[in-house]
């Protein structure tokens, strides 16, 4: 019944083979299970990464919407500020015209030629080399959005526009779009290396010609001249009547220099006949503009002028207006005052200032 030894040996070997096969099968299943677990872990990680990307995308969309809303708000504020500046400028022009008419009438009545009697509350009657000789209004834009808003408000269809500091970018395209087919845009820029040509990125012009920038070369021209070289600039204008002058000094020099911007705007407004207005992009000029308190507005106010984060500037033409503004400011702000007079001649103005502050311990 137990069988022969050979039979027993065969049964033992068969059992070992089955056990080995079973062990191999179990090991293979364990490996498959481990692979499945790893795959499941990768799927979970991918799902977590997708959730993170989705959250980041939502945050980016929210930030983009906030930026768009902020840009729209800035544009609305810039338009409102430009309208208020235009209204204030018109009022100031009317007041100056009335003052000039009064001075002419008084001068004719006295029969003394240019020796006219001063008008009460006005500037000194003496002629000044700093007196404005042009009626072309200058509008100031402190930012790119305000600059583009000013372009949209001041430029008309069919206008000829001179863009100084032209970069053949978004502003030039906006000018070409507003002036339409009957208008013309002449861009002026310095001779410079194009952006990215040397491997370095900059904020300057990227294209050599209007056609390369996707603009119509029949209506948009680019002249590479020094805008401070008046003869070269007039040669580029080629006797064409310019309606609007747009200036971006920062694009020319890389710096926002207030006096440089104002001198260039004043110089070009004098040599371009028929010019309707000047649009100047300059944050520094806009900053000074916010500080200005015109003598007419200052005289109309009562009580002390409220303080601001920028010091107030009262522009005065002539020594009489200068003394009156200084004395009026000291009278409206009682208390101890410290006065710094630059350009002091130890004369009448100094004596008036000393008299005004002596009784206050200043």
UniProtKB/TrEMBL annotation:
It comes from the Eukaryota. SUPFAM superfamilies: S-adenosyl-L-methionine-dependent methyltransferases (SSF53335). Residues 91-101 have a biased composition (Basic and acidic residues). It holds the Pfam family PCMT. InterPro entries: SAM-dependent_MTases_sf. Residues 91-127 are annotated as: Disordered. This is Methyltransferase domain-containing protein. It comes from Emiliania huxleyi.
